[in-house]
């Protein structure tokens, strides 16, 4: 767990059995008027992680969305991905908790869960 960011992600390439390095990821928060506002963006590191989103920022309850740029990642491997991008929403009810939201991805399958 990262102490510096209340929201982190980790992308694992289940086809290769390795971290997905260099995947672009965007984090958004839904506003009270149902508009999405980008609050962070980054690229997965050598371990497939983004650990520094929102470092030092106030944590807020609400609905968030993470979008992963899967097409460019798989194109670099010479593969066509069934999912050109992957986006999902999740809810933060307790802003004092850490939220780790991993993605397991292959060119033809995906899964996510709330990690620790």
Automatic annotation (TrEMBL):
This is 5-hydroxyisourate hydrolase. It comes from Bacterioplanoides pacificum. The keyword Ion transport does not apply. Its EC number is 3.5.2.17. SMART domains: TR_THY. The gene is uraH. Residues 2-115 form the Transthyretin/hydroxyisourate hydrolase domain. Homotetramer. SUPFAM superfamilies: Transthyretin (synonym: prealbumin). InterPro entries: Hydroxyisourate_hydrolase, Thyroxine_BS, Transthyretin/HIU_hydrolase, Transthyretin/HIU_hydrolase_d, Transthyretin/HIU_hydrolase_sf. GO terms for molecular function: hydroxyisourate hydrolase activity. It catalyses: 5-hydroxyisourate + H2O = 5-hydroxy-2-oxo-4-ureido-2,5-dihydro-1H-imidazole-5-carboxylate + H(+). Belongs to the transthyretin family. 5-hydroxyisourate hydrolase subfamily. Catalyzes the hydrolysis of 5-hydroxyisourate (HIU) to 2-oxo-4-hydroxy-4-carboxy-5-ureidoimidazoline (OHCU). Keywords: Hydrolase, Purine metabolism.
């Amino acid at each position: 767990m990262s102490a510096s960011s209340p929201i982190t992600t980790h992308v694992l390439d289940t086809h290769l059995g390795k971290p997905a390095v260099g995947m672009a990821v965007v984090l958004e928060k839904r506003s009270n008027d149902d508009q999405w506002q980008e609050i962070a963006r980054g690229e997965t590191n050598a371990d497939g992680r983004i650990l520094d989103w929102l470092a030092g920022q106030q944590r807020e309850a609400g609905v968030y969305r993470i979008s992963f740029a899967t097409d460019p990642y798989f194109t670099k491997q010479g593969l066509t991905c069934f999912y050109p991008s992957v986006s999902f929403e999740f809810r933060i009810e307790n802003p004092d908790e850490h939220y780790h939201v991993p993605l397991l991805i292959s060119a033809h399958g995906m899964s996510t869960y709330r990690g620790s």
